[in-house]
Amino acid sequence: MADVSLTNVRKVYAGNVEAVKGVSFDIPDGGFCVLVGPSGCGKSTLLRMVAGLEAITSGECRIGARVVNEVEPADRDIAMVFQNYALYPHMSVYENMAYGLRNRGTPKDEIDRRVKEAAGILAIESFLDRKPRALSGGQRQRVAMGRAIVRKPQVFLFDEPLSNLDAKLRVQMRVEIKKLQRALGVTSIYVTHDQVEAMTLSDKLVVMSNGRVEQMGVPNEVYRKPASKFVATFIGSPPMNIAKGVVRGPGAVAVGDVVLPVSDMAADLKPGDAIEVGLRPEDLIVRGDGSLTMQVDFIEELGATQLFHGTLGGAHLVIQAASGLVPSESKTLNLAIDPAKVHLFDVGTGARRGR
């Protein structure tokens, strides 16, 4: 096993198109790092540079004690799981899993032991004689993971491996991937555009936008203290509400004619300054004695929870609450907010204003 370190890594394509703009972070041995962001943010390019499938324009990639910038992909001791599985259709499951080991000259009995061990871990022993076309999407993904496991690499690289699966199977497979990674203890880098996948899988979450790292940290820290408006609205479902506001004084901002208390305000903000106010849908608490009144436009029923769409101080908001807490015909909601859960962002840069 090994740690992975990226230092000021850049990727520039012909025509001076900068896809990755000086990214640096470390992943400890056995850590699970998820790169998340919208399409085109550079996350897959970054993963491919770690794999050796893309050349690094500048900066340094290290796996363990070795700088691998000029090392061929086959010699980096990594295993990659792709979105499209990349299985050989004419080979059986066993042959697909054994193929890489045979190419490396691994003894036949060792290949057999590793393939059967991996098949047992993934519960695909009964599929070893089948061809990929006879398998479901989830079973094919297990085979792709098994092919990576038998390699016993220093690092696993996952490139949106669940994107082709239906919603229910994605939930099941991400649980299995996390359990498997913990059991094997292999350092892993996982790319996804799905923020729910990112939150549930990662030990370290790296949020990317426009080729740069917007924020990195443990998932709950990124969720609770977003470094920018981009992170605040990208991480979380439903996303954070953002409303235009004005600083009223120390510890207070106004959204329209509604004044909100704020405990985490930058010291240089002064009355009259324009600000953007962020409120998580679940942090606005429905309470009979709440001092804030929201006009309800419509309600989404989601089973265990309800989403209330409406306006507060002229700003459109979405509130999340437990089902049955409020009559479905309600036209207004009384709300309360913890001052520590009111987020402020700079109007120009989108950066967080406060601790």
Write a structural description.
The chain has 2 domains: 4-228, Rossmann fold, CATH 3.40.50.300; 238-345, Beta Barrel (OB fold (Dihydrolipoamide Acetyltransferase, E2P)), CATH 2.40.50. The chain is 24% helix and 35% strand. The chain has 8 helices and 20 strands. The chain has helices at 43-51, 93-103, 108-122, 137-150, 167-184, 195-201, 219-224, 229-234; strands at residues 4-13, 17-27, 32-36, 58-63, 66-67, 78-81, 155-159, 187-192, 204-209, 212-217, 241-249, 252-255, 258-261, 274-279, 284-286, 292-301, 305-312, 315-322, 332-337, 342-345. It has a 6-stranded mixed β-sheet with strand order 6-7-8-3-9-10, with helices on both faces. The protein has a 5-stranded antiparallel β-sheet with strand order 13-12-11-14-20. A 5-stranded antiparallel β-sheet has the order 15-19-16-17-18, with no helix packed on it. Helix 2 runs parallel beside helix 4 and helix 3 crosses helix 4. The model has no long low-confidence stretch (mean pLDDT 92).
Q: Report the mean per-residue pLDDT as an integer.
A: 92
CATH architecture of the largest domain: 3-Layer(aba) Sandwich
Strand content: 25-35%
The helix/strand series, from N terminus to C terminus, equals: EEEHEEEHHHEHEHEEHHEEEEEEEEEE
Overall geometry comes to: globular
The CATH H-level superfamily of the largest domain is P-loop containing nucleotide triphosphate hydrolases
Radius of gyration: 24 Å
- Regions with little confidence, pLDDT below 50 for 5+ residues: none
Strand order of the largest sheet: 6-7-8-3-9-10
- How many domains? The number is 2
Roughly what percent helix?
Answer: 10-25%
SS field, number of helical segments: 8
The tally of beta strands, per DSSP, is: 20
> Mind telling me the CATH class of the largest domain?
Alpha Beta
Task: Indicate the structural class.
Answer: alpha+beta
Biggest sheet overview: 6 strands, mixed
| Distance between the ends | 36 Å
